[in-house]
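Re: beginner question about structure tokens

> Can someone show what the tokenized structure looks like for a real chain? I only ever see the sequence side.

Sure, here's an example I had lying around. Input first:
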Amino acid sequence: MLATPTRTPGVPPQGEGWLHEVKWDGVRALAETRDGTLILRNRNEGEITVAYPEVAAGAVGLPDGLLLDGELIALNDDGIPSFHAIAHRMHVRNPARAAQWSRERPVTFVAFDLLRVGDEDLTRLPLAERRRRLEEVDLDRPHWQLSEQHDDGEALAAFTREAGLEGVISKRAESAYLPGARSTDWVKTPHRTELVAVIGGWIPETGDDKRLGAVWLGHPADEATFETAPVLYPLGRAGSGLSHAEKDALLQVLRTTERPTPPFDPAPPQDPTARRTHWVEPLLCVQVRYLNVTPDGVLRQPVLLRLRPDVTPLEAATVDLSVGS
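And the corresponding structure tokens:
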């Protein structure tokens, strides 16, 4: 079930009948217990269990037949849930690599809904009743957490904004769970967030091949091997934010680092935009503000804030974002 944007930017819905939770900056997932094991699936229904062995280990002892909706989150160096802190694990399928990441930057499954218990489908029950049933499940275990609910959405929005969290999700207490639907019974109030990304290509302006229109963004797909195998996981492309002078100066540098193939894995689809792209070595970093992230890890509504010549690609995930602001 998906949420719609709040009508008033930055302000959650008010009044009785609403329950409010933190909007976690992580990876949405369904968790199912079956035959004594845990199965994790992403929003596209692909199985991702192998990428998060610590979450699977923490589920040992949960009763079979549970289906939970929640968010996989990782904390950045400031102790704040951050998509950038978990993004490198989204596509890990090597068990040894996943085990190493689980030790270096562990992940927690934050549960916020219970959809099934055994053969009993709970999706048509009101949220308040599903929540009561969820609280009966023993989630006091390593790498598992129950998402807290609050009555005052405005106060939670102020707190999450001050704490640097992604935002607030507000849900009607009487709402059923509508799989795959984007409903006004769930409303999201996001706060824009920032990260430092690595430039992997540039796209000319439409009608003027000598001007920079946008850049492709990414982050190291595998930090452990980036220096010998510099490959980026794609975050999408961005074109707004920099002045014409800044774009011209950036383009002069990018032209000196061009390469024939994209430095991304997976490579961007071969649409007209990609075919017009000049790929570059992943050397330059840029600070980006974005609204939120798609299930595939692409930034929504990204804006280029400033170039970060002081940051190397390997430092991008942990750099101080306040520098230069």
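Each token stands for a local structural state, so reading them left to right follows the chain. The domain at 193-315 is CATH 2.40.50.140 (OB fold (Dihydrolipoamide Acetyltransferase, E2P)).
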